[in-house]
Amino acid sequence: ECVFKFGGSSLASAERIDYVAHLIKDQIQLGYKPRAVICSAMGKTTNQLLLAGEYALEGKVCVEEIRTLHTNTMNIFNFSEIDFTRIAVNELLIECEQMLTGVKMIQELSPKSLDQLVSYGERCSVRIMAARLNQIGIPAQSFDAWELGIITDSQFGDAKLLPSYESKIQNAFKEKINDVNTVAIVTGFIGHDSNGKITTLGRGGSDLTATAIGAALKLDEIQVWKDVDGILSTDPRIVSNAIPLDQISFEEASELAYFGAQVLHPIAMQPAMKYNVPVRVKNSYNPSAIGTIIRAEKSMSQRLVTAITYKKGVTVLDICSTQMLGAYGFLAKVFHEFEKHKLSVDVLASSEVSVSLTLDTKQDTNMIDSLMEALSDVSNVIRKDNYSIITLIADITQSSEVLAIAFRVFSKENIQVEMMSQGASKVNISFIIKSSQLEKAIIQLHSCYF
């Protein structure tokens, strides 16, 4: 028994929905029993809905592109005019248009309204997917996630699951799905708060829907279908012969995701980690590939480095104390200012009188300037832009060997390491280098470790 999850690119058109429906049918024939299939919105629908919201604030109501995509898909599947699915999807699209007209009138789009607006994408896609599965002989029923127990707090735009979600999911599946052979087709990314208002789960939201259901129902596996053969040893856009990994631990996967790899978001892995339900990342374009399994234990294969990931375009701050503050006084002051300015740090290296750290470039530049100003009375602050972080997810018990190889590469390629840090997690070693040398470093390191 398992959960399947498909993202927007897997469902971008009628052709892709049909392909995924047949893929689900094939998996069932191979002996898998999907209790639920989590679907994202079709293709770029979520972005188009966000854009439609912006247009509405400018006085234009425009849902034509979204309507055309869904109507054409239903036409290709020959849903009749009185078909329940066609009526339901048309009602959702009309409701969406009416909502945008309201936004145009009152000239306001609150986070609460925005969550409702983007929900229409998922709600349309699950209805079409369930109908297509029924057409090809797989009994399926569509659900909005809240009907199956996805209940959240009221933090619109970035809602968190309430602790009661597990029992709510268990009860909802018992009550609402009478036949265990019926596949529940469930909206990813969205939920309800306790007042019945629609919320969205923030980044990695659809993956979180899948892991929450898989963990609550204590299923054998959660399968996340993407467009690559599982999790790769590095970014295939930089290293064309990156290799798929057979198995990684939840901890390794979290570090990979944090440092930029397109894996599951760390928050999405929490329910699976709690009950040690394995998560398998598979390729919808190559279903026979075994994929990568993420579970509590690391792979048995004896490799020094599991994967190489990176974060481009980070800012380095070197902060040197100018006061005779004790180490704790200086560090306390530094971290207090970071908290005050709401700036989060990626990598850090410190001594008694100096701290070097990296900031993600997505953070507010004015805040960084303001922070530097605030620290100037106790320290000299030097800011350096256009750096990148290379992170090795590695076996730290052999860190001396890992580091020896890395520095041999850096020395040979004339790559200057600005700073380095060995994570407290004991699975990552990070190097900060100039962005202009990033690709060369990844290519050379990959050729040595793999």
Automatic annotation (TrEMBL):
Q: What is its EC number?
A: 2.7.2.4
Q: Which residues form the Aspartate/glutamate/uridylate kinase domain?
A: 2-283
Q: Name one GO molecular function term.
A: ATP binding
- Quote a single Gene Ontology cellular component term: cytosol
UniProt xrefs under InterPro entries: AceGlu_kinase-like_sf, ACT-like_dom_sf, ACT_Aspartokinase, Asp/Glu/Uridylate_kinase, Asp_kin_monofn, Asp_kinase, AsparK_Bifunc_asparK/hSer_DH, Aspartate_kinase_CS
Coiled-coil residue spans = none
What EC class is this?
A: transferase
Highest taxon of the lineage: Eukaryota
Instruction: Name any Gene Ontology BP term.
Output: homoserine biosynthetic process
Reactions accelerated catalytically: L-aspartate + ATP = 4-phospho-L-aspartate + ADP
UniProt key word Kinase? yes
User: Which Pfam family, giving just one, matches this sequence?
Assistant: AA_kinase
PANTHER family reported for this sequence: ASPARTATE KINASE, ASPARTOKINASE
Give the family this protein belongs to, as stated in its UniProt record.
Belongs to the aspartokinase family.
Tell me the protein's name.
Aspartokinase
Q: Which organism is it from?
A: Fragilariopsis cylindrus CCMP1102
Q: What is the lineage of its organism?
A: Eukaryota, Sar, Stramenopiles, Ochrophyta, Bacillariophyta
